[in-house]
Amino acid sequence: MRGGGSDGTDFEMNRVAQFREVRSPQKLWSGAMVRPNRGEVSSVYGVRRYYNGVFAQNYYHRGVDYAGGSGSPILAPAAGRVVLVGRVADGFRLHGNTIGIDHGQGVSSIFIHLSRIDVQEGDTVQAGQTIGTLGATGSATGPNLHWGLYVNGVAVDPVPWRNSGFE
Ligand SMILES: [Zn+2]
């Protein structure tokens, strides 16, 4: 994703902040997580960004971007419960169409810039289930999926979770 928090609407920033607060006791994920899109990784976790030749303060890329084709499926990386669905029409100007999944025990995933959302809040999803399609909604330079993985509200690198998982 591009941009700082400043160009998001209050509504979307509040919804996303609430999403990061979700802690549910039951562990729903198990084993290695599924790759959420077949596109190539276009930006890895932790990349920093320059503004006018200076590293942006407090900015690093809090997720992994996949440059899949527009309309390509997005898969739930692990089982969970859909706790956030945000749409551009409702004010998700920065994130675009967004899905947030609670995997339990403080582990959660957010998917942004979607072209289509196939789930509703409250739905239970299984690992590998199609939840929507890749797009360029919100503040996106082109079609891409941003997957952010959080543990107790703190962004973590999804790669080790993809390769081996944590129990
Ligand atoms: Zn990103």
Give a structural overview.
The chain has a single domain (5-163), classed as Glucose Permease (Domain IIA), CATH 2.70.70.10. The protein is globular and about 45 Å long. Strands 1, 4, 5, 6, 7, 8, 9, 10, 11 and 12 form a 10-stranded antiparallel β-sheet that branches. Strand 7 and strand 8 form a beta hairpin. Helices cover 10% and strands 35% of the residues. It starts with 9 loop residues before the first helix and ends with a helix. By secondary structure, the protein is mainly beta. Bound molecules: zinc ion (ZN).
What is the percentage of strand-forming residues? 25-35%
Task: Please describe the biggest sheet, giving its number of strands, its sense, and whether it closes into a barrel.
Answer: 10 strands, antiparallel
Can you count the helices? 2
How many beta strands in the DSSP annotation? 12
Bound molecules: zinc ion
The general outline is: globular
Topology pattern, helix = H, strand = E? HEEEEEEEEEEEEH
N- to C-terminal separation? 29 Å
In the CATH hierarchy, the architecture is Distorted Sandwich
Which structural class matches the secondary elements? Answer: mainly beta
Low-confidence stretches: 1-5
